[in-house]
Each structure stands twice: as C-alpha cells, then as structure tokens.
UniProtKB/TrEMBL annotation:
Keyword annotations from UniProtKB, A to Z: Ion transport, Membrane, Transmembrane, Transmembrane helix, Transport
Annotated organism of origin: Streptomyces graminofaciens
Transmembrane intervals: 12-33, 40-58, 78-95, 107-134, 146-166, 178-203, 209-227, 247-280, 325-343, 389-408
Topological category with respect to the lipid bilayer: Multi-pass membrane protein
Subcellular location: Membrane
Keyword Transmembrane helix: yes
Designated name of the protein: Cation/H+ exchanger transmembrane domain-containing protein
Domain Cation/H+ exchanger transmembrane: 26-412
C-alpha cells in the first residue's frame, strides 16, 4: 500500500534530515579523533553524545528535539539495530585464535583473571549503588542488575584494541597477540554472561528459564555443527554459483539477519545471533574467493553505526547526574580500571610475563569503546539499569577508551617494550630486566 499520510510523510522527512546530520557529524568527529591519535570510533561516539540533550539540547529551541523528534526515533532505532547486527557480525568474523600457539597458558590466565575480578567488583558495586539506582521493590530482584553490571565491567573493546595496537606498532609483537587473544576470549565470556542476564531477566519462572537456556544451547550447537559445515559446502570454490561474489554476499547477509532474528525470537538479543553467525562463517572460503564481501558488510556497518551513536546519545543526559551521579561515576571508574588493570597485570606477572609486559596488558585491556555501548544498550532495553547509571557507564566507556592509547604512548611502554618482548616474558623464559623491575615498583 502506498504511503499517503501527511504525518507519515513528515516522519520520513524527519528521518532523512536526521540521517543527513548524524552521519557527516560522526565521520567528521572520527577524523578529528584520528588526528588526535585516538580511535575514530571515539570521535563518532562523541558526536552522538554532542547531538544529544547533553550539548545540542542545551541550545535555545532544543535543536536535538527538532532534528530527532519522538516520531522519528523508532525508525532511527531500527536503523541503529541493523548497524549493531552488522557490527557484531564483524566482531565474530574477525575472531582468530591462530596466533595462540604457545601462548594459551598466558591468554587463558589473563582472560579469566581480567574478567573474574572486574565481574566480582561490578556485582558488588551494584549492591552498593542499589539505594541510589533502584527502588525498594526493585532491590529485591538485584540478581539481574548485579550480574549485568559485572558483565559490563568485564568488557574489552576488541576492535578498538586492535586499532590501538596497530597505531603503536604492537600488532606483530607477542604482547600484542596475547592482548588481542585475551580480549577476544574475555569478550566471549562477557557475552556469555550477558546472555545469562538476558535469560534471567526475561524468564518468568523456572521452566521459561530452562527453556531459554536449552534453546540457546541448541542454537549454538546448530550453528557449529549444521550451519558451519553447510556454509563450507555452499561457499566452496568448486561451486559454480560462487563465481559471482554478489551471491555470496546475499547468502552471508541473509544468514546474519536470520541468525539475529532467531536469537531475538528465543528471548535473547539480536546481537548474539549476528555475533555467533560471524564466528562460524568459514573465513578461508570468503577471504580467498570473495574478499569484497566482508568489506561491503563493514562499509554498511560503518554507515549505520553513527545512527546507533546518536540513538545512544539521546539517552545520555549529563545534566541529570547531580552530586550522587558524580560519586557514582567516580566509583564506576575506580572499579572498572582497578578490576581490569589488577586482574590482567597480576595474572600476566604470575604466568611469566615481564613487569613491562604485564603493565602494558593491564593498560590495553582497560579499553572498552563501542563494544561497551552495545552491551549497555542491551541493559537499558532490559531495564536492568536506569538512565542515570546508563549515562555514568557511557562516560566510563569513553574515558577508559581515551586513556588506553595515550598511556601506552606517554608511559613509553610500547617503544621500550620491543627490547624485552623478544628476549623473554610471554613465550620466553628470560628473567625480567632491571628496567622492568622499576616498572613493577
């Protein structure tokens, strides 16, 4: 049926104007961030926050409400969700544990420790902040919020970390490989914990809880042992239909959307299906015979992610923090930084890393970035965090992401690391140098 309603036509125009503003703003701020030696995604997040009520909304006439009126926001939310689905596919697709040979002990130890400690501190913080964040009735059901805050503290932004390592020449160093592998493994653990939170919050009883858990396990097994072999056969180079990468693109795009639909239908979130589908897609087949397919999906994701940043920014309002909010922000920052840094540094040191390598891992794994925003939006949608705690957690994600790159550079960890990285520590048996001992002090 053709659209003829004047109100609907007006909403379409509002969505188009909003897109025309948010996409260039995000790209421009991303370019500025790169000039400041920060990940581009940090500038794009900042653009979303600036277009929200915290800055643009303060101007006379409230331009935020004019550019992004309530009627247009559901449509922007749909585009934001599509951008998230494409992004999570990329995260799953680029998971690669091939560089872990000989580093498994370090990776597992660092990953588990840098997840367990922030998770424990986060759940404890949720209980402490409960009187300020939840009503008395909600406090009786703190399991979901506490588990969620623990998972949120445990996240490391895998894509942002990869960019930081590349910028500082650490991508091919053993410390960089361990950092990336640790981030990948701990994000898997954090997403698994988030899935548990979603199931706990959405389930209305013991049977629905068990049903959702069984469906989730069945979905993962189906993806691993049915979909993955099927994709290998379907995308094999000897298939005549694979000569046209457009068909491969269609198969992959449809697969990730259907996977996102499946997890949403079973009570989880769309991001889980897209992430798992990306992880099971046979990379060798795609990279060798249809290398433009991942690039095309990534370009679509980069185009739609600014919508997600602005939708997130519309939910962030620093004006409403007040004194309590600032105390909450300080507490969240301390817990987030201490949990990640101490967890990663301590585990790395105990498994034979030098002091300098251990400190570097602690600094790098504290970056959260876009991955944290994805998780926070899931939590806000579930209702396990309120608007003020959401604002605090978004601020924490931005600050910890900003800290990682400059700390690696200004503390001279990256330039000096190469002199000790090949001689001992991770993957070697050499004793720590005197310089490393100074860092440990």
């Amino acid at each position: 049926m053709l659209i003829s309603s004047g109100a609907t036509d007006g909403t379409i125009r509002q969505v188009l104007v909003g897109l025309a503003v948010m996409v260039p703003a995000a790209l421009l701020c991303g370019r500025i961030a790169q000039r400041l030696r920060q990940p581009a995604v940090l500038g794009e997040i900042a653009a979303g926050l600036m277009l929200g009520p915290s800055l643009l909304g303060l101007l006379p006439g409230n331009p935020t409400a004019v550019l992004f009126p309530a009627e247009a926001r559901p449509f922007l939310q749909i585009l934001a969700q599509l951008g998230l689905v494409l992004f999570m596919f990329q995260v799953g697709y680029h998971l690669d544990f091939a560089d872990l040979r000989g580093q498994g002990r370090h990776v597992v130890a660092v990953s588990l420790s840098s997840v367990a400690l922030p998770f424990a501190l986060g759940t404890g913080l949720a209980v402490v902040l409960a009187p300020w964040t939840f009503s008395e009735q909600e406090r009786t059901g703190l399991v979901g919020p506490a588990l969620f805050l623990g998972a949120a503290m445990s996240i490391t932004a895998f894509p942002v970390l990869a960019r930081i390592l590349s910028d500082h020449g650490l991508s091919r160093e053993r410390i960089g490989q361990v950092a990336l592998a640790s981030a990948a493994l701990q994000d898997l653990l954090a997403w698994a914990m988030l899935a548990v939170v979603v199931v706990v919050v959405n389930a209305t009883g013991s049977w629905p809880l068990a049903r959702m858990a069984m469906l989730s396990a069945l979905f993962v097994l189906c993806m691993m042992y049915v979909i993955r072999p099927g994709l290998r056969w379907l995308l094999a180079p000897e298939r005549s239909w694979n000569r046209d990468s457009t068909l491969v693109y269609g198969v992959v795009f449809s697969g990730l959307l259907l996977s996102a639909w499946a997890t949403d239908a079973m009570g989880l979130h769309t991001v889980f299906g897209a992430f798992i589908f990306g992880a099971v897609v046979p990379r060798r087949h795609i990279d060798a015979y249809a290398p433009d397919v991942p690039a095309r999906l990534e370009q679509s994701s980069l185009l739609l992610l600014p919508v997600f940043f602005v939708v997130t920014g519309l939910s962030v309002d620093f004006r409403g923090l007040g004194g309590q909010g600032l105390v909450m922000l300080l507490a969240v920052l301390v817990v987030a930084c201490a949990g990640k840094f101490l967890g990663a540094t301590g585990a790395a040191r105990l498994t034979g890393a030098t002091a300098r390598q251990s400190v570097t891992l602690g600094v790098l794994l504290n970056a959260r970035g876009l991955t944290e925003l994805v998780l926070l939006n899931v939590g806000l949608g579930l209702g396990v965090i309120d608007g003020r705690l959401f604002t605090v957690m978004v601020a924490m994600a931005v600050i910890t992401t900003m800290m990682a790159g400059p700390l690696v550079q200004r503390l001279w960890l990256a330039p000096r690391l190469r002199t000790v990285d090949r001689g001992g520590g991770l993957g070697g048996d050499a004793a720590p140098s005197a310089e490393d001992a100074d860092v440990a002090k």
